[in-house]
Design brief:
The protein is about 60% helix and about 10% strand. The protein is built from 18 helices and 10 strands. The strands form 5 sheets. The chain has a two-stranded antiparallel sheet with strand order 1-2. The model has no long low-confidence stretch (mean pLDDT about 95).
């Protein structure tokens, strides 16, 4: 044995562990076995698992299943991890045992060591920290706790901020009339406010979907222990545990109505991931619209100017690119890919346990974090700060032959089509050609073809 190591013992025998490590034998075995990637379990998950252990200790204390000193030493040790201390003591690879048992024991061992140091006696990672629990209910519970906390604390506030910025910008440009587009081709006019309002509604609907999915995610598996029957746990453990973790996290958790469902499947998390994908699709759409509208400035649409944030080329001086929408679109692509991984992993609920829990955790929490930060970046560095190129918009709108659509009820589709083709061919304003080709007066045409009026719908009169 090296002087820098100590011997730890578990049910399989002796293991060398780094002298200063807070973890013990089972964690070291996992480190030795799973040298697959440089990815470790997210901090949010480790902190959620510490919340689980803390709530379990409080529950065991209430049920008089553990003595007061041991319980409070465990509770205090959990709080250190929740507060972000000792984050370097959780080195196990994401690609580990599918139940996440290695990560569960990693957290159990670190908490046990800290509690033992506090009391001056040995606290067991299995018999004390893990009392009334199994990896098979603790890990699914920690996944859902971490997802709910990060959604409530990070993602949902970020989405509300993005909605607010979109609402403000929509109001600011409610009278700015522009060419609408379908199939990337000129269509009837809309206001920029209407366009932004559509984006706002997309984000709002995505947020509502996430909130609805969180209702199911908030129903926890803790209490099912090994296979869902609750073996080796007190009959009141689950209800008291849920009360304790809800108080500690300020998230309205409930007890699952069926532990077999919550442990053998990850359907609740798959559904949440699906809603995150819907949000990613909305962010991709908004990002691409911003890029198109900003394109140019001379040979593109040139409707808006995004805030210039950095040089856009190492060779072309003066070039500035839409970097924030591009970054947001890449985040959307990543989240869509994460959802595919979570979907495949969700199918691995073999009999009484899903066996791809760690990779579900990693991808889910990455998606939540990426979407939260991206929503704020998109709001603050792209949408809030862009300006409108009014003259460019008006010039394109005045020559838009599609405006003739408003005259369909008055002169008929075929006559209107002929006027549109002539206006396009001669590159003349549609109103000039319509005055020449119809019996309508200039005054009547100005009223019928008023772009602002056309954004309000209805039938021309």
């Amino acid at each position: 044995m090296s002087e820098l190591h100590r011997i730890e013992t578990d049910s399989m025998g002796d293991v060398e562990v780094p002298q200063d490590a807070l973890y013990q034998a089972q964690t070291q075995r996992a480190i030795n076995n799973f040298s697959i990637s440089d990815l470790t379990m997210p901090d949010a998950f480790i902190q959620a698992l510490a919340y689980v252990k803390q709530a379990a200790a409080r529950t065991n204390l209430e049920l008089q299943l553990i003595d007061d000193k041991t319980a409070h030493a465990i509770i205090d040790s959990c709080q250190l991890i929740i507060d972000g201390a000792h984050s370097d003591q959780f080195p196990i690879d994401v690609f580990q045992t599918g139940s996440g048992t290695s990560s569960n024991m990693n957290v159990n061992e670190v908490i046990a060591t800290l509690a033992s140091q506090q009391l001056g006696i040995t606290v067991s990672p299995n018999d004390d920290v893990n009392r009334g629990q199994s990896s098979n209910d603790a890990i699914p519970t920690a996944i859902q706790v971490s997802a709910a906390i990060t959604c409530h604390q990070q993602l949902l506030p970020a989405l509300k901020h993005l909605e607010q910025v979109l609402a403000q910008k929509s109001q600011q440009f409610s009278h700015c009339v522009k060419t609408g587009r379908t199939h990337l081709m000129d269509a009837m006019p809309i206001t920029l406010g209407q366009e932004l309002g559509g984006w706002q509604s997309q984000i709002e609907h995505a947020r509502n979907g996430i909130e609805q999915a969180l209702d199911t995610v908030s129903a926890l598996a803790q209490g099912g222990t090994a296979v869902g029957t609750g073996i080796n746990t007190h009959p009141h453990f689950a209800a008291i545990f849920t009360k304790n973790i809800a108080i500690a996290t300020a998230v309205p958790f409930t007890t699952s109505s069926n532990f077999f469902y919550s442990m053998s499947s990850q359907d609740a998390v798959v559904a949440l991931s699906g809603q995150l994908k819907t949000l990613a699709v909305a962010i991709m759409k908004i990002s691409n619209d911003l890029r198109w509208m900003n394109s140019g400035p001379l040979a593109g649409l040139g409707e808006i100017e995004l805030e210039p944030l950095q040089p856009g080329s190492s060779i072309m001086p003066g070039k500035v690119n839409p970097v924030i929408p591009e970054a947001a679109a890449m985040v959307a692509a990543q989240v869509i890919g994460n959802d595919a991984t979570i979907t495949v992993a969700g199918q691995s609920g073999n009999f009484q346990l899903n066996v791809m829990l760690p990779v579900i955790t990693y991808n889910l929490l990455q998606s939540i974090s990426l979407l939260a930060t991206t929503a704020v970046q998109l709001a603050d560095k792209a949408i809030m700060t862009f300006t409108v190129r009014d003259e460019h918009i008006k010039q394109a709108l005045s020559k838009n032959p599609i405006l003739i659509t408003a005259l369909n009820p008055v002169i008929g589709y075929l006559k209107a089509a002929a006027i549109a083709k002539k206006a396009y061919k001669e590159q003349r304003p549609i109103i000039d050609v319509a005055e020449q080709e119809t019996n309508l007066s200039r005054t009547e045409l100005e009223s019928l073809l008023d772009p602002k009026k056309l954004t309000e719908g209805g039938i021309a009169k």
